[in-house]
Amino acid sequence: xxxxxxxxLFAFLPLAFAGYFMLMRLRATVAAKVWLVLASLVxxxxxxxFFVPLLAGSIWLNFRVxxxxxxxARTPSGRRLLWAGVGANLLVLGxxxxxxxxxxxxxxxxxxxxxxxxVTLPLGISFFTFTQIAWLVDSWQGxxxxxxxxxxxxxxxxxxxxxxxxxxxxxxxxxQFASRWTHAVRQRHVLRGLTLFSLGxxxxxxxxxxxxxxxxxxxxxxxxxxxxxxxTTSLSYTLxxxxxxSGYCDMAMGAALLFxxxxxxxxxxxxxxxxxxxxxxxxxxxxxxxxxxYVYIPLGGNRGGAAAVAVHLMATFLLGGLxxxxxxxxxxxxxxxxxxxxxxxxxxxTGLSLPRPIAWLATFAxxxxxxxxxxxxxxxxxxHVLHGMVDLDSIRHWPLGQLPSVDxxxxxSLFDPLLAVLPATVVGRLVCLAALAxxxxxxxxxxxxxxxxxxxxxxxxTAAALAxxxxxxxxxxxxxxxxFLYFAF
Length: 489
What we know:
This protein has 23 helices and no strands. The protein is mainly α.
């Protein structure tokens, strides 16, 4: 089930909310939590019920191993059990997500085709696997005290975060599920949650899916791209992925607040970043935190000198890239960000700095270019877009006949006057350019979390949220019910 569907908005969410608080009102706390777990399993299994037993088995195994690790914290036998538990999680993840990729590459190297049965990637497997690996590690380190199987199951399955994050840490969630504060409807939380959910829904359905049409046409259209078309393609995807994923997280946080649960912030205006390190403090914050705590620091972190730190950074971001999917394009994206962070550390060591506008432009341009590798299906797809982005000569010398006629349909009688003063490549993309300008201007304004916090309780804020919700529902009912981008990861 997806957030931007009538089934979720008008059936699942109201029923889950009403059932939970009705049971809480009757002081049936355990029954209320069981209700929420069952609702979350229905939410997860709506797409493919076959994977519900996989999720349930993963929860059962990890909880049993985690409790055993609490009893053998920091002992040699506990360490062996920890490795076995982590290995089991990675084995399942590897089979579903990476087996075909490994087999394909081994086959290409050896010249012998390796046949594997075709498998479907379970939704959210990377998220719930990494969440539970962290639970195992912290259990062995003696950081976990809660042994409630029900609270643990609710922590893993809680539907707002289950499919596409944010990546939760047990320390910030288990106490909330155990707290009596969550047992009653809190009007303040409901209002802020609905405001945040509405803004996120608008970001996804109205904004992200609009930019997706231009991004998909450029990446998947199979036609040569001129300079303007290539840049509008890359910038459209840059805005699409942010609006799509941050919109999902806004909806997840909003839905969780209805149940008095606060999820961690996952985005903090990342396109305002002034350097690549600042970007990773703002983008997919829970993944950055996870990679820092469970990959970078165990590898050695900032210890060992500049060369060692560079190796730690590169290894962390190569793994971070691979986490997103079984493709060399994700590895390349991770490698580029890892290398950028290494160079950034070297730049900081010189004591030099750039003026803020130049620092912002350099950071944003780097992020935009690297998204090309992230979005492209192959090296050929990436080079197809990147070649257009440096083809300055195509601005005025691109044959009019090679431009899709649909690009000019919007102009009507304005076509000839516009063509007299602007290159055809610009006229064809004028609507997209205007949308991109508006989108980039919007990035400089307060983000949805800030809006929900500062204006969510005012009459104007409530009216704006209601308008955003209505616009999103109308767009959704008109046919826009696309899945979120991070469902694929």
